[in-house]
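TA notes, week 10

Several of you asked for a full example with nothing omitted. So below is the full record: structure tokens for the whole chain, then the designed sequence directly under it. When grading your own attempts, check the secondary structure regions first.
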């Protein structure tokens, strides 16, 4: 369905505004013709009346064979009247010769036959409405798509909206544990943002983009928040899917609006989560043809990141767990100057994460919990999974009515976590 909408709303970016309107008119012409044909077909009666001579009508009238009222009309010919009537053998139609109308009326009155103007049939009503409505709806559809495409399309328009909220996160590098190497790399980015002179004197520049790659839950978003929070700079957070739209060109316009907003803010961090939604390799699709909207949005993102050098203090951070599908033009140095591999924490890192989240739990630090044992039990766990186990352990402590968490609460929480997610660990847990 998305590909159908993309095709119907696609406009070649090289066309001028008048050319786009003409392009849309001819593009939707088959739809207009098909609708008109359908209305004509539906309005045509399935069993038309049998045409008979006027003399036959008079014979039926004289023999009292007419079983319904007589309908008289002048449709299609202003000189000859058309008479519709029904007999036991079926419906009939005849035309009244010139000069015979008066005689016909006298006979109808003398026989006491009901007659009057023939009302329009349901098919004729449908044809009338279709004749009026289809051209209006056709032009309204073309005009609406034209306005949306030219106001928010690929020729530099604006959607009238800017995606991504900006704020200074309440997270610092003190909240980042279990990833010492990744933490050092991001701290270095912050240092180059806050003290550019030190790096400029050495001939270095602040990296314009940092791509964080790693499994889900390893702390990529946390690192981005820590960078902005520790530097007390605003962070604009968006998702790759926020740029994707049914109408071709809308995503590209949103990219431009996002970087325009960041440029006005001065020193700030743009964080694009799940960038693989918009940064996939171009030309991947049926027959080697990719998605027009995704490719135009990616082209706009590439151009915008090239222009980051004019926005002093703007750093783009992006996160993905599928770096292998990203377009090479996006990941090259000059756009994403640094790629940070965010891995699962080791034993020491897992212990630090348990210490960080466990310190907020009741009864922690009373000798009831062996952090080393918990680190051994959670091999292959991410930081988010460890935080979830800590929360489940606290819930179990509440369930049993204890005064604080104990090692048994953590063991059962970890066991249930492994069973529910099919994670095979040490000691059969």
């Amino acid at each position: 369905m998305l590909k159908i909408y993309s095709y119907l709303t696609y406009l070649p970016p090289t066309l001028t505004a008048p050319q786009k309107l003409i392009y849309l008119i001819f593009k939707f012409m088959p739809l207009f013709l098909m609708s008109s044909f359908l209305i004509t077909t539906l309005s045509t009666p399935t069993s038309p009346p049998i045409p008979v001579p006027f003399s036959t009508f008079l014979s039926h009238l004289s023999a009292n064979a007419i079983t319904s009222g007589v309908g008289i009309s002048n449709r299609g010919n202003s000189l000859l009247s058309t008479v519709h009537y029904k007999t036991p053998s079926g419906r009939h139609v005849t035309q009244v010769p010139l000069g015979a109308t008066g005689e016909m009326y006298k006979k109808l009155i003398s026989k006491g036959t009901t007659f009057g103007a023939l009302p329009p049939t349901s098919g004729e009503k449908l044809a009338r409405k279709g004749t009026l409505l289809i051209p209006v709806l056709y032009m309204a559809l073309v005009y609406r798509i034209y306005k949306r495409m030219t106001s928010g399309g690929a020729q530099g328009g604006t959607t009238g909206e800017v995606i991504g909220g900006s704020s200074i996160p309440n997270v610092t590098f003190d909240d980042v544990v279990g990833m010492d190497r990744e933490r050092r790399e991001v701290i270095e980015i912050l240092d180059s943002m806050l003290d550019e002179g030190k790096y400029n004197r050495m001939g270095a520049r602040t990296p314009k983009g940092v791509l964080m790659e790693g499994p889900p839950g390893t702390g990529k978003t946390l690192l981005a928040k820590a960078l902005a929070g520790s530097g007390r700079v605003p962070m604009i957070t968006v998702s790759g899917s926020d740029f994707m739209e049914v109408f071709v060109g809308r995503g590209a316009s949103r990219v431009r609006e996002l970087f325009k907003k960041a440029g006005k803010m001065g020193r700030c961090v743009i964080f694009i989560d799940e960038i693989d939604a918009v940064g996939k390799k171009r030309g991947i699709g049926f027959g080697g043809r990719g998605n027009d909207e995704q490719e135009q949005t990616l082209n706009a993102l590439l151009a915008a990141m090239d222009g980051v050098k004019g926005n002093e203090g703007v750093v783009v951070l992006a996160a993905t767990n599928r770096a292998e599908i990203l377009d090479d033009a996006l990941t090259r140095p000059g756009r994403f100057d640094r790629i940070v591999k965010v891995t699962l924490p080791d034993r020491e890192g897992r212990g630090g994460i348990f210490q960080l989240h466990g310190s907020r739990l009741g009864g922690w630090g009373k000798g009831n919990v062996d952090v080393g044992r918990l680190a051994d039990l959670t091999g292959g766990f991410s930081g988010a999974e460890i935080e979830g186990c800590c929360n489940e352990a606290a819930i179990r402590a509440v369930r049993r009515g204890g005064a604080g968490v104990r090692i048994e609460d953590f063991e059962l929480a970890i066991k249930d976590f492994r069973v529910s997610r099919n994670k095979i660990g040490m000691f059969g847990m």
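The chain is about 45% helix and 10% strand. Use that as a sanity check on your answer.
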